[in-house]
Amino acid sequence: MQGSTRIEGSVALVTGANRGIGLAITEALLERGSTKVYATARDPKTLEVLHERYGSRLVPLRLDVTDAEQVAEVARQATDVDLLFNNAGAFEPTDLTDEAIVEVARREMEVNYFGALRMLRSFADTLARRRGVIVYVGSAAGLTNVPLQPTYSASKAAQHSLTQASRALLAARGVTVHGVYPGPVDTDMTKDLPPQFEKTPPEDVAKEVLDGVEAGDEDIFPDPFGVDFGERFHSSPKSVERQMAAMVAVPA
Ligand SMILES: NC(=O)c1ccc[n+]([C@@H]2O[C@H](COP(=O)([O-])OP(=O)(O)OC[C@H]3O[C@@H](n4cnc5c(N)ncnc54)[C@H](OP(=O)(O)O)[C@@H]3O)[C@@H](O)[C@H]2O)c1
């Protein structure tokens, strides 16, 4: 358990704020009393509706987390950030029949791991100065590989490791780090998921994430699938691995 955080009065920055979970987190932050949210997106035009709704409390910024120059520029502008949400994420369907599987894996890693690492490096001093908070929107698939999403899971495992590294490396500088481990959430990312997977609305996930941050929970499981997955993972990681493998097992 870490120290608790107040959302009210905070300044936040969200990557991938234009849709899905990032959009829901951005709106939840503003509804809970953040004084300013830097809403970042690859195409700032996609933030226009949000900007109209929230006015000057919403600061739209262009940010592709794979672009080192853009990350550095945003860090130069946003020097008052208390809460950094590393939310931007990439997923592409692939499997071993895909000749491009290595390129797919690289693209996912470039956003999900290297993008988050760039943000950490660029915002570490600002967050240390403000005794701030980093939230990594990871995935249950980062704790145990989901073989239906083999390369995505690997990139989320790398991000989970980065979450742990951030916590250890920045604790002495007063920075609090939260890892979020959702199951299926109803966003564009899961539009092709088989129907047996129940999806949680992104607004419900955003509420649980902010509740977890305010409560000081290090690991946040923000949906029913994630809660169940987390409990089973903590009691027997091997049995969860076998259960995930059984989802793709082909009868002999
Ligand atoms: N949906 C799920 O079931 C689920 C489950 C567990 C974890 N997650 C994680 O939750 C996070 C949000 O996912 P989501 O479900 O909201 O997916 P989504 O609806 O597909 O949104 C992905 C967001 O990431 C942004 N993004 C992608 N590449 C980027 C880049 N290079 N630089 C900056 N932004 C980039 C997208 O921007 P554009 O609009 O420009 O593409 C978009 O805003 C991701 O980290 C994802 O891995 C999702």
UniProtKB/TrEMBL annotation:
Assigned protein family: Belongs to the short-chain dehydrogenases/reductases (SDR) family.
Record GO cellular component, one term: membrane
Keywords assigned by UniProt, alphabetized: Oxidoreductase
Organism of provenance: Planotetraspora phitsanulokensis
UniProt GO molecular function: oxidoreductase activity
UniProt-recorded name of the protein: Short-chain dehydrogenase
Taxonomic path: Bacteria, Bacillati, Actinomycetota, Actinomycetes, Streptosporangiales
Entry-linked Pfam families: adh_short
Residues in Ketoreductase domain copies: 10-181
